[in-house]
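Here is my example:
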Amino acid sequence: MDQGNFFQDLPDASAAEVIQELTAFAGTRVRVERIVSDGQATPDGFWYDQAWSEWVIILRGGADLALETPDETVRLGPGDWYHIPPHRRHRVSRTEPGTLWLAVHGGGDDGTA
């Protein structure tokens, strides 16, 4: 996709969070996603442990990111962004209905993004 409007043609996320890759940069390990959440959270006991960095910003709605070691929760609202370095275990503990995220992934220590 070469062009679009981030706020239009949003998928229905009432049954499950929807992650759409908007672009990936050829020759790099960078990808950009639009994430639509509608009250979802990461299942209890599951932690993401990614080999790459992830940078997220909330454009609409809100979410709480739970981080492990040290244990902390980051509350995000419109305009708030957070950088998750490689292997920083995290989970989404709460999202508001209609939450819209922009996520940028890249720089994996294992060659992935």
Summary: The CA atoms of residues 64 and 75 lie 4 Å apart. The chain has no helices and eight strands. The beta strands are 18-24, 31-37, 53-60, 63-67, 72-76, 81-84, 90-95, 99-106. The longest strand covers residues 53-60.
